Request: fold
Amino acid sequence: MRKITTVLTLASVLYAQVAGAKTLAEMVQKPQCFAAQYDSAHLSAHPKQKVRAVWVYVMPAKMTDYGGEQKLVSGLDGMGSVMARFKNDRAFYGSDGVECTVEPDGVWHCGIECDGGQFTMQANQSGGILMKPTHDGYIRVTSCDEAPKQRYIESADDQKVFSLRPAALSVCQSLMKKFK
Reply:
């Protein structure tokens, strides 16, 4: 089964390259913002889905700024943030501390510090990304310090795959200011 999955994943990466889409690693040579927003009609058709909007900010780990210096972060290919809004809740949630590595098949495997869950990201044919919670089934979108107010994107809530499109970098940057 693993061989079939690997072949299918490799085939989809190759198809995306042939079709003119870039791999996620090629797309993220500089900071990038991706977003998905769901209208009332979509949420009504998917009543278990709790996420109204999700944003992912990702940048190469070599661009991480520590005290004003640009340094390479050993063992990582990318870092960033995940932000979300939930239906029936006007609040905005965000978690930085996302750390990613790129596998040879082009899939990014990302984890959120303090056991905030894991997810994968992969380029799709439309120039955006597919984001999926992994085996643990959740993505925390609050900081480690907000223990009593933790919020999660959970795959059990009909949120197994998110198709995000490129968004203006300023969108993610302004949203990140709300939770830092």
Remarks:
- The radius of gyration is 16 Å.
- Confidence is low (pLDDT under 50) at residues 1-21.
- Helices lie at 2-18, 24-27, 40-45, 169-176.
